[in-house]
Amino acid sequence: MSFLRNAAKLFNSVYLFTWDTCIALANLIAPNLKPGSVIPHGRPGAGGKWPEFVPPGKGDSRCCCPALNALANHGILPHDGRNIKFTEMTHAVQTSFNLSSTFSIFVPTFAANMLHRNYKTVRQIASNILIDIHSSQDKFDLADLNIHNGIEHDGSLLREDARFDPEQDKPSLPLITELFASATGKDAAGNLVFTHADLSRASGKRRTAARATNPDFTLNKSQKGFASGNCASLLLVFGGRVADLEPFLTEERIPEGFESRVLARWGLSLLVFNLNIFNIERAIKEEAVPTVMAQNETA
Ligand code: HEM
Ligand SMILES: *[C@@H]1O[C@H](CO)[C@@H](O)[C@H](O)[C@H]1NC(C)=O
Ligand SMILES: *[C@@H]1O[C@H](CO)[C@@H](O)[C@H](O)[C@H]1NC(C)=O
């Protein structure tokens, strides 16, 4: 049974990455979407009109991800952040930010595996004898994603490390202020934006500080990939634009008029995303740290 399950998983990932490459190539050939036409009519955010922002109240579940929290704050995911289907998360991120279908399936599947739950709903797998229906759980609360060293890791740009902030569900304003101070770019319209180099520099600084102050600090290769992936999402989905990122990162609110800067016809592919991760991670330099802390180095 577990052999079949692993074989099915391997098949799924080979299939997903092959399909993703096709999407990336097709995006290269097809003309880009026109700004203003990224979100289809009738979907939240079409024409820059987002459903009302309601900050989280008592008992609402929130997590370490600003994007998922923002979707819940606008009611695109359930406002209480509870009992969310993995497939519902896929649909919400795909249509709100124009991520490719492959990207939108990959990350929620990773999250489902991390939580030892099923990505697909019980209905969807009912006919699939490979999976034991009795143990199936296909939903999660946002706070479930906060498991330390699952996807959540030390040295984040927006949250204190889990040792100092075990909840992980609210932004750290001092860290965010520091992050914004590192933006140096200008886009074609003259707006202040983060560049790849800005985010590499900010990440290097943050990792150095976290390593020096947190005795539990760990950050291995996969976690570095997630960390630079988060930076890549700020560059690709927001064009690095500081005016949009201020409400998004500090209040977890999508500003009026916001539209994803992903103009690729079939959405942001994992391939393009990974190339950006590689470029950001490659340029991150950590300063030398006192040797006591260096023994926590895991990568
Ligand atoms: C598709 C499902 C998604 C899942 C399961 C997910 C999950 C997570 C998790 C667990 C973290 C915490 C990592 C850390 O410790 O820093 C995180 C952080 C982050 N996520 Fe997401 N995320 C998703 C989609 C997105 C999208 C679509 C965006 C951008 C539009 C995004 C932007 C970010 C950013 C910027 C951070 C960095 C937080 C920090 O540095 O403190 N995420 N996400
Ligand atoms: C990206 O946006 C375009 C335009 O609205 C849409 O046709 C396409 O389906 C979107 N991509 C995905 C993967 O949802
Ligand atoms: C990094 O650490 C996490 C959590 O301990 C683990 O699941 C993952 O496999 C590790 N990755 C690498 C490349 O060591």
Mean pLDDT: 92
CATH superfamily label: Chloroperoxidase-like
- The topology string of helices and strands comes to HHEHHHEHEEHHHHH
- Give the termini separation: 34 Å
DSSP strand content: under 5%
By CATH reckoning, the class would read Mainly Alpha
CATH topology: Chloroperoxidase
Strand order of the largest sheet: 1-2
Query: Could you say which structural class the secondary elements and strand pairing correspond to?
Result: mainly alpha
- Level-2 CATH architecture: Orthogonal Bundle
The number of E-state strands comes to 4
How would you describe this protein?
The protein is mainly α. The protein has 11 helices and 4 strands. It has one domain (2-298): Chloroperoxidase-like (Chloroperoxidase), CATH 1.10.489. The protein has helices spanning 2-29, 66-73, 86-97, 101-114, 122-125, 173-180, 196-213, 221-238, 242-250, 270-282, 291-294, and strands at residues 84-85, 139-140, 185-186, 192-193. The strands form 2 sheets. A two-stranded antiparallel ribbon has the order 1-2. A two-stranded antiparallel sheet has the order 3-4. A hairpin with a 5-residue loop joins strand 3 and strand 4. Helix 3 packs antiparallel against helix 4. The protein is globular and about 50 Å long. The model has no long low-confidence stretch (mean pLDDT 92). Bound molecules: protoporphyrin IX containing FE (HEM) and 2-acetamido-2-deoxy-beta-D-glucopyranose (NAG) (2 copies). Protoporphyrin IX containing FE binds at residues 64-68, 89, 93, 97, 107-108, 111, 145, 151-153, 156-159, 226, 230, 233-234, 237. One of its GO terms (molecular function) is metal ion binding. It comes from Mycena alexandri. Keywords: Heme, Iron, Metal-binding, Oxidoreductase, Peroxidase.
